[in-house]
């Protein structure tokens, strides 16, 4: 029989038991459920709701149950969920005293507490992993601070940039991911226990004391809201989706860069796989899997949004389906960040090939537009003039570097000998020192600022 057997004439159908059970998923929350129950028992004793001796007996039993779970001596196969399973085990071990544990709480606020405790720990761990990955980007940027590679828009060569500038682009994406998760953590870190099923309780509980025991800076303000919303989880999933989107884009770059047409990088063997048929293959499977797992995180977000959008206040059993997104997404995020930090450190960068490709095409066209603008030519006029120069070079099979000063003069008398210095590859990259640009001075500022951000406390 269930813990609510008093109301029902018949036992639950076996198929319903199986259908409503979530123990296979939420077993992972056992530590947090016990942590919350210990704090709750201490509060019940402090407020005189149960005798101190009985509270201590319950607490000792909870601690023993945790040890038995972690030693593999206790499993809850077939139970409905981890919350009821632990309570039933307490009652089994201490009898009538154990039945007092659930005083002044509901499974509704108990679930919300477990989720917030769990998610708080997961966010903090993810934040540290993001910092580690940012350090990898910054270290590589310092090591390759003068390496030039082609920069693309529409996957067409656009302008040359510094490899360090590219690496720092992902540093700043990760920085925003970090800030979003830090902000999310503030809203996760709110103590919900004491909300009851939806209306609070008439018993003289002390929610602030429980918050102090569990290291929550504040308690929730509305019992109905406390048990009926999962926006804190949705916010985490949304931030996670953005983080995975960034990792997926990085994966796409590395997959392209490792392919023969690019040959910009070579991923170490330990982070690649081969083919069951073609012995010559070396596949960037780690990057591809991270790109693929991004879809699972998106799915977690969409599934929870869809589940929540039509629920009336307050708690509804649909909300049991929040457990899989809650428990799955952090694992994907942590695995991806850990393996990516190691893989990126062990990736060989073909700097010669990058610079070789950066010299191809008309990489200096925008710089020549700027050259004319500096001499008073309106931008649109200079843009059209350079378009005609590109067309001329394509027809003649030549590049800007191949043209004589006389040929430059045919397009504009403003071109002088210094134009040949302006169209050098390094000139086109190193001089772009507008704030946030790829120039050397701008890059130095970026690195200094990045270093300061990494020194900030999480």
Structure notes:
The protein has 3 domains: 5-103, Fumarase C, Chain B, domain 1; 108-205 and 221-357, Fumarase/aspartase (Central domain) (Fumarase C, Chain A, domain 2, Up-down Bundle), CATH 1.20.200.10; 359-441, Ribonucleotide Reductase Protein R1, domain 1 (Orthogonal Bundle). It is 61% helix and 5% strand. It has a two-stranded antiparallel sheet with strand order 1-2. Helix 3 crosses helix 6, helix 7 (163-188) runs antiparallel to helix 10 (231-257) and helix 10 runs parallel beside helix 12. The protein has helices at 14-20, 23-26, 30-46, 52-70, 82-94, 107-143, 163-188, 207-213, 223-228, 231-257, 285-308, 323-345, 351-358, 365-373, 379-396, 405-411, 419-422, 425-430, 440-455, and strands at residues 148-153, 156-162, 190-191, 218-219, 265-267, 347-349. It is mostly helical and 458 residues long.
